[in-house]
Each structure stands twice: as structure tokens, then as C-alpha cells.
Amino acid sequence: MTGRGAALLLLACGCVAHLQRDGEPTEFLEPTTVGALNHQGDYFEIDGAAHLLILDTLGRPELWREGGSAASLTLSFIGMLRVFDLPSAPVRTPTYEPKLRLQLFRVAPLPAPAGEAPPFRIVAVELGIGHRSNGAEGCALADHGPPGRNDFDCPALTTPPSSALNLKDGSFTTNYLEAGLWARFLRPLEGGGPLASAATAGFWGEWHPPGPPPFMPAEMRTRYGSVVLHGQLLGELAVLRGRHWNLPVVGPVSIESVARVTLAGQLHADPAGGPFGGGSAELALLPRGPRGYGLGLFVRRLFGRDPLNIRFEQQLDAWMVGLIFDPNPIERIPAPAGAAPSPGGEP
Predict the structure, then answer these.
(1) What angle do CA 118, 124, 125 make, to 5 degrees?
(2) How do beta strands 95-109 and 193-207 pair?
(3) CB-hemisphere CA count at 13 Å for 194?
């Protein structure tokens, strides 16, 4: 593509892409968390996510009355930044991860007694392409250098050569293809409106093709694996319903809160040394205002291997406590015909 063509494409996407608008529904997008770690040598971690919607048809009112198909195309900028307890250069090798994904949804109401809002099932197929790197340019292995033609083309400085990864400024770069499947079951309040409870399951995999940078070098694929499998289970329950808070400037608003339990894990399926993985368990309380976004508190238990790029061979068993921002608004199911909507019901 010529420079002129790339500029025109960027301009076209810029006119269409947007952050979520007031009440615009989305599904299965990553939240942002900021929290303190109790792991030795770590201060706190930011897992950030910003999502630009290029296409989103989940907001059609008839979809949440009758069911149907929908689609979204999202450009996400995901990052992980950890501050270490070090005398200098405390931020080491952050993860930068832009990702373009297409989600194809099928929304269906489930049978319900007459006069009650039906529960809903949401199923989604997700396809994506992403880039993950840490922006570092050092040798991939410790005690190697100066940098050569690629991450692993650095002469050893010790005898025998070190095989440990360079956790200070070792380069980590990969492009990957992603495919996954999500399912969400939600039960609204009896008179319709925001959810009373929900359960969500998602399973997806990454394939890291071989090749020179920006693909993952063969030496790194041997350790990291070419296929990484992910899984996530969520359970949600509405709490503190119908509370009204008088906020400065904004005035009185209705706050809906959700208590959420999340279990997540990943498995590197085919490295030379055998499969390995890690995971987390999290409890969060998410009050949501009129726009539907959630901002609350979480506590998370991390276990297994560290997900921070070049540190993937390190063990990370730690607690993390902090703030969570969730961009996915609560689904709102219209009240049945002739029924009075629940408090905080239809938008």
C-alpha cells in the first residue's frame, strides 16, 4: 500500500471509529485495572485497555426484544505496565498490544413465564489479529551482547553461555492470530431492566506464526510455544439495587451494582519443555452509573507463570488489590408488554 493509500485508510477509519457512546452496548471487552501487588520486588501494576469501535450493531432495540444477529469490529489497545521496587528504571519491559477483532453475535431470548422478562443467551465467535511486544531492544538472553542481527543473534559473554531470559531489557516481539468462542446467559429483573444475574464463559487461542521479527523468532517459539490457549469464567449477581446517590455536579443518579467472580487461565500448549500456564481468581464490586460503565474495587489472586512478556518463565504467586474500570455496560432487557418496569429498568 502506498503512503497516500495508507493515509486515506487511516482518515476513513478515524471518521468511523469512536469510543463507546452513552449507553452503547458492547460484549466481552477487556476491563482496565490498577492495583498494588504484594509480590517481592513489585509495587503496582496497570492492565490498561482502550477500545475503539469501528462497527457495533448490538445497540438495536429490537435485538433485546426479539433476538437476532449482530456484529462488532473493534480496535483495542491493551497494555500491561508493572512498577518494580528498584533503585533506578523501575518500569521494566511493559507490554504493548494493539489488536483488531471481529465479533459475530447471536442474541436469543429464552422461554419465560407470561408477563416476565425473558432471560437471554448471547453467543459470539471472535476472530482477531494482534501484535504484542515490550518495546525493548536488548538481547533476549541474559549475559549476551551487544545486540546482533536479531533478538537471539548476540554473542555470549560468559562460559558456559547463559540460557536465562534477559528480564531487564530483553526484546519480546510477536504477531498472532486469534480465534475464540463466548457464551453469556443473563437473567434480568422480573420487570425487565438491568440484569439480576449472569454467567459467562469464553475460550480462545492464539497462534504465533514463525518468522523473523516482528514475528516470534524460532528460539523464542521453542520456549514460549506457538499456541497459547485461554479460558475465562465469570459469575455476576446484582447487589445494592435501586440506590440513589447525590453526586456533585451530576446530581441524583441511580446506581446499579454488580458483584462479580472471575476465574481466568492460560496454557502454553507446545513449548519444547512441555506445557505450562498460569491464572487468576478475582472478586470485584462494580457500581454502575447512568452510562453503564463500571468503576469499582477488586481483589485478585495470581498464580502460575508471569504473563508479563519476557518474564513468562518466572513464577508469580501474589495478591493484587485495586480499582477496576469495565467498559461493558449492563445489558438492559425491555419490560414485557403490560408490565411495570423494574427500578432502573429500560434505558
Answers:
(1) 160
(2) unpaired
(3) 25
Q: What is d(CA 228, CA 174) in angstroms, rounded to the nearest whole number?
A: 12
> Of 28 and 3, which is predicted with more confidence?
28
Mean pLDDT of 51-63: 91
Letter string b/e over residues 282-313, b meaning 16 or more CB atoms within 10 A of that residue's CB: bebbbbbeeebbbebebebebebbbbbbbbbe
Rounded to the nearest integer, the mean pLDDT of the chain is 85
CA distance 81 to 31: 15
Residue 130 sits at φ, ψ, to 5 deg, of: -145, 165
CB 140 within 8 A of CB 167: no
Task: Please state, in angstroms and rounded to a whole number, the distance separating the CA atoms of residues 264 and 225.
Answer: 19
For cell 444475574, what's the residue?
A: 197
Which residues make beta-bridge pairs with 326? 294
Q: How many angstroms separate the CA atoms of 171 and 141, rounded?
A: 9
Q: Taking a C-beta distance cutoff of 8 angstroms, is the pair 245, 252 a contact?
A: yes
345 vs 117: CA distance, rounded Å: 11
Contact 68, 105 (CB under 8 A): no
Scanning the structure block, which residue is given the C-alpha cell 439480576?
Answer: 196
Which cell numbers hold the place of 143?
549475559
Q: Give the pLDDT confidence of 113-154 residue by residue, as tens digits.
A: 877 788 999 999 999 999 999 999 899 999 998 877 678 889
Q: Grid coordinates representing 293? A: 460503565
Please give the helix or strand (H or E) that residue 64 lies within, else none. helix 63-66
Distance CA 302, CA 100 (A): 27
Other CB atoms within 10 A of residue 226 CB: 19
327 closest CA partner among 14, 56, 79, 21: 21
Fold of 27-135+172-333: Outer membrane phospholipase (ompla); Chain C (2.40.230)
Q: How many residues would you count in the chain?
A: 347
- Longest CA–CA separation in the chain, Å: 81
